[in-house]
Write a structure and sequence with these properties.
By secondary structure, the chain is α+β, with helices and mostly antiparallel strands. 39% of the residues lie in helices and 22% in strands. It has eight helices and six strands. Strands 1, 2, 3, 4, 5 and 6 form a six-stranded antiparallel beta sheet that branches.
């Protein structure tokens, strides 16, 4: 369900149009605006506003979303609901996997501990495509506890109510 929702956002015509416009802009000017946290760049950016509206409609994952943002096909931050993502994303595994993924590809990252908060996070990243050309990547970072609690807290497992998740490698 989450992959479908994120793919739906990534394929929105306004997102694709925004990335097409971004391709024509000077990248140095954009970087300077992001680095200075220019309020207009953040709050009046049409793609950022659209991401925010998507998030407001998503009642299940709203409280679990730590970051929702778009990077272009060069790995540069183009839109975000907040200022937490880094500007340059080319070296991030999520961007690399999603940008190179085929049609209907979705990257689901491992659980990682946030060094600032100690919270566990995971990321879903999907390519943004137009006419089979990758225009960018939609990234959504979730707080694992908030995301999974709404799915499993209401389920009773066996007589004890305890559950253990084990990865394919046994960890």
């Amino acid at each position: 369900e989450e992959i479908h929702k994120n793919s739906h956002m990534a394929n929105h015509p306004s997102i694709i149009n925004y990335l097409n416009i971004q391709e024509t802009l000077d990248k140095t000017t954009l970087e300077n605006r992001w680095q200075s946290e220019d309020p207009q760049m953040l709050s009046h950016n049409p793609a950022s506003q659209l991401l925010q509206s998507f998030l407001e409609e998503d009642t299940h994952a709203n409280n679990a979303t730590q970051a929702l943002y778009i990077t272009d096909n060069q790995g540069l931050l183009s839109a975000s609901i907040n200022f937490s993502p880094q500007y340059l994303n080319r070296s991030r595994p999520a961007w690399n996997k999603a940008i190179g993924g085929g049609k209907d590809f979705a990257y689901i990252g491992p659980l990682e501990k946030d060094p600032k908060t100690g919270d566990f996070l995971f990321e879903i990243a999907v390519p943004i495509r137009s006419n089979n050309i990758v225009k960018g990547v939609l990234h959504r970072v979730y707080w694992a506890k908030n995301f999974f609690s709404s799915w499993i807290e209401t389920i009773q497992f066996g007589s004890t109510g305890h559950v253990m998740l084990i990865a394919s490698d046994g960890t």
